[in-house]
Amino acid sequence: MTLRRGTTITVGTMLGLLLVAAPAAGKGGEVEGYGARYYVTNNWSGGTHDSFTYGRNDDQVYVGNWNGRGADTLAVRRGATYHFKNSVSGGPADSVVTYGRDGDVVLMGDWDGDGTDTPVVRRGATYHIKNSLTGGAADEVITYGRADDVVLVGDWDGDGTDTLAVRRGNTYHLKNSISGGDADRVLTYGRAEDDVIVGDWNGDGRDTLGVRRDNTFHVRNSLTGGPAQIVMTYGYASDSVMVGDWDGNGTDTIGLRRSPTPPAVSNRDEYDALMIELINEERAAAGVPPVTEWQPLREAALSHSHWMAREGKIEHAPWETISSDAARVGCTAGGEHIVRTYQRDTAPHPQDAIDWYMNSEVHRAGILNPNNTHVAVGTVKAGDLVYNTQRFARGCS
């Protein structure tokens, strides 16, 4: 992947004929959103116990126990460099480590049960696991699930080690070891469109699921369906959510990342026109006929990019929405691609997003699919973040 100076690809996903579930919030994965102000609560009463600033507004943020002393704190990522903080506070980082590549998708967890959280780099369905906060080669490499799965991290069986789960709609495939093969447990929970959180809510050593709906959190203390056992309203619906044990008492609670005044959002018309040219260059190189821009569908692509920018999320529209948007302008939906990039020092250029898409198996397949005859592209810039939506379609008339 070729990246321009000052640019970091953060994340992107692909939607074909099936709905890809909303991403998990907090534990294990990158914390969504924009802003350097954080609020944490140490119980379920809905009140803030600590508030602080750390890092920059546009940092990539992770939660973990970096020093093995029991409390979760923050790390910020800038490219392939990680700044780890060992207290819930502002100020300089306690350690700085370079690991992996700028564009890697990274998860955090305690993979070997030693009490400290460390990174795993995800490339498609392959996971490169590191058991120390150092650079160098991965300690273990495994393959699990599919390249387009939504992935959760948790200690599902209470043995002290974090492992993976994949989410497909409202079905969860939990693995109790760092290995490939079949899931150890499959369960159904909540709704396919829920924002899901993971944590040990009652201190029994096992991580379970919860859902966030607007600014209300519904959690269960067992990996089963049924009504929530804890319900709490906290913060604003626009806040991004973190999960951690902020006071080291053995139970996970909620943290919030809050945006300052949102950055102005602007459309990128030239960017979108050039992106379609680049799509057709890739198709020509693969011997695939070009796609035709379908301008009536661009409003829907732009609308979704505006929504992602407002929410600070990289998340698909529901498939029903994608289908109805296409039908309304005389097309059959072919799929949606979305990606978010950082562009600090240079004007946004679509080659960065195209490089990311073409290095992803599922996105490459969508771009080169000869059945996709039409496309609309909608991109917006919000501060240093650029949100792109591609809507592919068929049979437009």
Q: Can you put this structure into words, describing what you see?
A:
This protein has 397 residues and is α+β, with helices and mostly antiparallel strands. The chain is 14% helix and 36% strand. The protein is built from five helices and 27 strands. The strands form six sheets. Strands 1, 23, 24, 25, 26 and 27 form a six-stranded mixed sheet that branches. A five-stranded mixed sheet has the order 2-17-18-19-20, with no helix packed on it. The protein has a four-stranded antiparallel sheet with strand order 4-3-22-21, with no helix packed on it. A hairpin with a 2-residue loop joins strand 26 and strand 27. The longest helix has 17 residues. It is globular. 44% of the residues are buried. The N terminus is likely disordered.
> Which radius of gyration do the C-alpha atoms yield?
21 Å
What is the beta-strand fraction?
Answer: 35-45%
Count all strands and give the number: 27
Unreliable stretches: 1-11, 13-24
Distance between the termini: 36 Å
Which shape, going by the Cα principal axes?
Answer: globular
Helix/strand/pairing category: alpha+beta
Average pLDDT, all residues = 89
Number of helical elements = 5
Largest sheet: 6 strands, mixed
Percentage of residues in helical conformation:
10-25%
Element layout with pairings:
Elements: E1 7-15, E2 24-25, E3 37-40, E4 50-53, E5 60-64, E6 73-78, E7 81-84, E8 95-98, E9 105-109, E10 118-123, E11 126-129, E12 140-143, E13 150-154, E14 163-168, E15 171-174, E16 185-188, E17 195-199, E18 208-213, E19 216-219, E20 230-233, E21 240-244, E22 253-258, E23 265-267, H1 269-285, E24 292-293, H2 298-311, H3 319-328, E25 332-343, H4 350-358, H5 361-367, E26 374-382, E27 385-394
Parallel strand pairs: 2-17, 24-26
Antiparallel strand pairs: 1-25, 3-4, 3-22, 5-6, 6-7, 7-8, 9-10, 10-11, 11-12, 13-14, 14-15, 15-16, 17-18, 18-19, 19-20, 21-22, 23-26, 25-27, 26-27
